[in-house]
Description:
Number of strands: 0
Helix content: over 70%
Number of helices: 5
Number of domains: 2
Low-confidence stretches: none
Structural class: mainly alpha
Largest sheet: none
Distance between the termini: 30 Å
Amino acid sequence: MLYSEFIEGTGCRENDHNYQVYKNLEIMYMNSQMSKQEIYEYGKKLVDNSKSPEQIEFEEQIKAEISSLQNQLKNLRADIKKYDEYYQMDKSDKFWKLQRDGFKKDASYTRRRIAELKWILGLN
Length: 124
């Protein structure tokens, strides 16, 4: 059994504690009739998946950025609607259309950035 298989099978994080658990369970696996799945189930009870203070701070920063971007997106949607109404009233003035299209591009970028950040956190 490889360490990468153990990580995938148990869903644990790579750290020193979990590596030691893996080494001990690997010995058990080699000297018994237990299947890998049984070792994974046993390993899930022993591994440490606690997050470091740096990981917690990093996740909090990402969550704050997501919240800020969601607020920006809400404002962009309101601006798009407003400039669309202006353009509908006076289609000869292309300024409103250009403004609306600019806000649409910004909204598209913001939605993509939110999706990227959620992917980093594993929320998708």
